[in-house]
Amino acid sequence: MGILSAKLSAVKPSQTKAMTAMAASLKAQGRAIITLSQGEPDFDTPENISRAAVGAIHAGHTKYTAVAGITSLREAVVRKFQRENNLTFSVDQITVGCGAKQLLYNALVATLDEGDEVVFPTPCWVSYPEMVKLAGGTPVAIETRRDKGFILQPEDLRAAITPKTKWLMLNSPSNPTGAVYSRKDLEALAEVLREFPDVWVLSDDIYEHLVYGEAEFCTIAEVAPDIAARTLTINGVSKSYAMTGWRVGYAGGAVELIKAMNTVQGQSTSHTSSISQYAAVEALNGDQSFIREFRDAFEARRNLVVHLLNEIPGLECERPDGAFYVFAGCHALIGSVTPSGKVLETDMDFALYLMEEAGVAVVPGSGFLADGYIRISYASSEDELKGACIAIARAVAKLVHKAA
Q1: How many angstroms separate the CA atoms of 302 and 146, rounded?
Q2: Phi-psi label, residue 30: left if phi above 0, alpha if psi -120 to 50, beta otherwise
Q3: Residues near 53 by Cβ (< 8 Å), separated by ≥ 6?
Q4: How far apart are the C-alpha atoms of 334 and 393, rounded to whole Å?
Q5: What is the CATH number of domain 48-287?
Q6: Beta strands 231-236 and 200-204: pairing type?
Q7: Residues 364, 15: contact at Cβ < 8 Å?
Q8: Sorting pLDDT into bands at 50, 70 and 90, what band is 25?
Q9: If you ran DSSP here, which 8-state letter would residue 291 be given?
């Protein structure tokens, strides 16, 4: 009998982490690799936030905290939700975890029984289906279409819901596509959800502040207050505040659900770092002006990468409205032959070819349940992005189509 559980055997490792680890290994061997596979801002954490962490250390705030998080942080989260999202919560409706990712997992573990289904639109973040499996549920992917902006359509949601459906997981702005759900989009989905009062909504808003141009961020609990009682709104400081390594996420929802999530967390990590929590208080309560600076920089980088990629024959790239990824179609390059004679049969083959030939780490679309794409993070400097796109163009130019 093997040591590993049958449940774990069905779970795939994160392709995002796998490609990033491969890039790090090649770098350690002396290869020049531009890593565009991980969603991590290249900006430093703002100084006022770092000072707050140092101050917490000197003040002796280095002990265990409540499982749900320190009161001052939960109060800051309450104010944030009211100020920015018009959502009203009490402190006992708020929980804090080791990143938004842990809170997603806690919610699923706390609510799913064997056979329960969780629906979500694809392309989706690599961890959604795997977390559902680990929690004992059944992931149900709903394919979205490029010609619809990768936005979940209400008729497709309705068709996917069954008596076993427990959650709809919704991520806007989206990883990996950068799609942003408009108020109208969310209203249309809410109309469907009203037909299914037992289906809860897990709203993953981690890229909330990274929305560009005329696009507007909305969250479903605000758009449809009548379903707010069965919505868990999850966010965090990682992306908008350049605090990925601090590991602080937060969630607001029904008291019963929050208590259950705290039970799960109390038996796993207990709580996130006390120092990180005090830093997050400053992040949410302090000066917010740098967020616009970050957003403007990301928007300029987005425009640059979309322009350069669309100049490469065989790649097609829409201009995303949010997050910091482009999701470029590489369908026309599948079947091409590399200089060494290898046929690129999948988007993973293409991603590995770019790693080897161009020295650029990207993530294949198949990791996001969407074959024929690559995801490129533009959370890097313009110089790195230019260099990466030039290297990709040179590598693509060396490919020979199989039919040739």
Answers
A1: 18
A2: left
A3: 275, 276, 278, 279
A4: 15
A5: 3.40.640.10
A6: parallel
A7: yes
A8: confident
A9: H
Q: What is the pLDDT of residues 217-227, one digit of tens each?
A: 999 999 999 99
Query: DSSP class of residue 322?
Result: B
For residues 11-26, b (16+ Cβ closer than 10 Å) or e, as one string?
eeebbbeebbebbeeb
> Sign of dihedral through CA atoms 6, 11, 12, 16?
negative
Could you tell me if 149 and 179 are in contact, meaning their C-beta atoms sit under 8 angstroms apart? yes
Taking the CB of residue 295, how many other CB atoms lie within 10 A of it? 17
| Helix intervals (H) in 198-335 | 220-223, 255-266, 274-285, 289-310
Q: Is the pLDDT of residue 114 over 50?
A: yes
Expressed in angstroms, the distance from the first to the final Cα of the chain is 51
Classify residue 358 by its DSSP letter. Answer: I
- Please answer whether residues 374 and 351 qualify as being in contact, where contact means their C-beta atoms are separated by less than 8 angstroms: yes
Sign (positive/negative) of CA torsion 58, 63, 68, 71? Answer: negative
pLDDT in tens, 334-385: 999 999 999 999 999 999 999 999 999 999 999 999 999 999 999 999 999 9
Mention every residue, 6+ apart, whose C-beta is less than 8 A from residue 209.
Answer: 217, 239, 240, 291, 294, 295
Tell me: cis bond preceding 313? Omega within 30 of 0 counts. Answer: no
Domain ranges of the chain: 6-44+290-399, 48-287
With H, G, I as helix, E, B as strand and everything else as coil, classify residue 176.
coil
Query: Beta strand pairing status for 400-401 and 138-143?
Result: unpaired
DSSP string, 53-119: HHHHHHTT--S---TT--HHHHHHHHHHHHHHH-----GGGEEEESSHHHHHHHHHHHH--TT-EEE
Q: What is the CA radius of gyration of the chain?
A: 21
Show the CA angle centred on residue 139, arms to residues 138 and 142, nearest 5°. Answer: 140
Hey, what CATH class is 6-44+290-399 in? alpha beta
Closest of 388, 358, 372, 359 to residue 327, by C-alpha: 372
Note the pTM of the prediction, 2 decimals.
0.94
